[in-house]
């Protein structure tokens, strides 16, 4: 497995298994299959609602000596309802308990959105709606400075609960502000990125600041069709330049897109609920795209974002909540 060295000296495996939208009843066996097949990077989050099941899969693999804990990289994310300083540590401790781990390799602020606190004992995962049973349920914003949240994240590192801290869904302005006060700099920025959303300036800026980049949804629309956030015709896999490259290299179109992503220097966390596709998604290191192929795929960019709170929060949660504008 190829890795990206972080400014802390730790090495982030280039290909991870993204656990978003993987059903709890299947995730334990899929995690076991992934780790047996060579994955060493799991991308989790409180909001995914399956960390307990992921934890069982990890425990089974460790008990069977497939790998050691030190060989694993496990990421989780601080949800929007836990941004106040006093809620950050209980949130990570809940994730650690569910994952059956003593520490996380990486903990990210999931979104630069702070919502009204929902106690863990009341509802977990808390979800985006403050009161789902209300007559008109909606998100309840509760503004918290990123600085307050980040300082609490730094305390997790000092306590040994987390090795690296980072950010997700942040843009250059928020990152620049964070760097002005951070005692511990972010190790990783996780963002949506694929050939329809190349984010070249943001990725260049992150690398300039020695922040590694992980691309989620690296295959574009595939994860969003089932939840009505993309159309079937949006798929990048059917683009002629991708199809031609796949035939040339004897690979699937998905492997070509994933290879493009890692070859441009980002880590990736593709999601799948199919063991065969899990195996395909990690088989990326026995071929290389030409400069012409790389440029042709990059040229597919149309700044098409699928995971946009400025759209889905209003449509699904009755709350207008833009963050990228």
Please give the structural blueprint:
Blueprint: E1 3-5, E2 11-13, E3 17-18, H1 24-36, E4 41-43, H2 51-63, E5 73-78, H3 85-99, E6 106-109, H4 146-158, E7 165-168, H5 172-181, E8 188-192, H6 200-208, E9 212-216, H7 240-249, H8 253-263, E10 267-268, H9 275-282, H10 291-298, H11 309-317
Parallel strand pairs: 3-4, 4-5, 5-6, 6-7, 7-8, 8-9, 9-10
Antiparallel strand pairs: 1-2
Question: What does this entry look like structurally?
Answer:
This protein is an alpha/beta fold. It has one domain: NADP-dependent oxidoreductase domain (TIM Barrel). The chain has 11 helices and 10 strands. An 8-stranded parallel beta sheet has the order 3-4-5-6-7-8-9-10. It has a two-stranded antiparallel sheet with strand order 1-2. The longest helix has 15 residues, at 85-99. The mean pLDDT is 96.
């Amino acid at each position: 497995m190829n890795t990206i060295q972080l400014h802390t000296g730790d090495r982030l495996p280039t290909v991870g298994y993204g656990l978003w939208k993987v059903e709890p009843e299947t995730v334990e066996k899929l995690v076991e299959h992934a780790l047996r097949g060579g994955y060493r990077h799991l991308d989790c989050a409180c909001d995914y609602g399956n960390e307990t099941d992921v934890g069982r899969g990890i425990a089974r693999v460790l008990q069977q000596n497939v790998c050691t804990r030190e060989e694993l990289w496990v990421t989780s994310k601080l949800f929007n309802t836990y941004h106040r300083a006093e809620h950050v540590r209980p949130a990570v401790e809940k994730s650690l308990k569910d994952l059956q781990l003593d520490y996380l390799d990486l903990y990210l602020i999931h979104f630069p959105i702070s919502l009204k606190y929902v106690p863990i004992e009341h509802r977990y995962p808390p979800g985006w709606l403050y009161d789902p049973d209300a007559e008109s349920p909606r998100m309840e914003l509760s503004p918290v400075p990123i600085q307050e949240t980040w300082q609490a994240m730094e305390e997790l590192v000092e306590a040994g609960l987390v090795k690296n801290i980072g950010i997700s869904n942040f843009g250059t302005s928020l990152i620049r502000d964070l760097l002005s006060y951070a005692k511990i700099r972010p190790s990783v920025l996780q963002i949506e990125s694929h050939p329809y959303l190349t984010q070249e300036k943001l990725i260049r800026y992150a690398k300039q600041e020695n922040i590694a980049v992980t691309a989620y949804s690296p295959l574009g629309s595939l994860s969003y069709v089932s939840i009505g956030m993309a159309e079937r015709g949006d798929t990048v896999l059917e683009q002629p330049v991708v199809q031609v490259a796949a035939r040339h290299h004897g690979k699937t179109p998905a492997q070509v897109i994933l290879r493009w992503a890692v070859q441009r220097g980002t880590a990736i966390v593709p999601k799948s609920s199919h063991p065969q596709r899990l195996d395909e998604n990690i088989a990326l290191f026995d071929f290389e795209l030409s400069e012409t192929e790389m440029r042709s795929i990059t040229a597919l960019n149309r700044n098409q974002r699928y995971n946009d709170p400025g759209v889905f929060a209003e449509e699904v949660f009755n709350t207008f909540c833009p963050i990228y504008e």
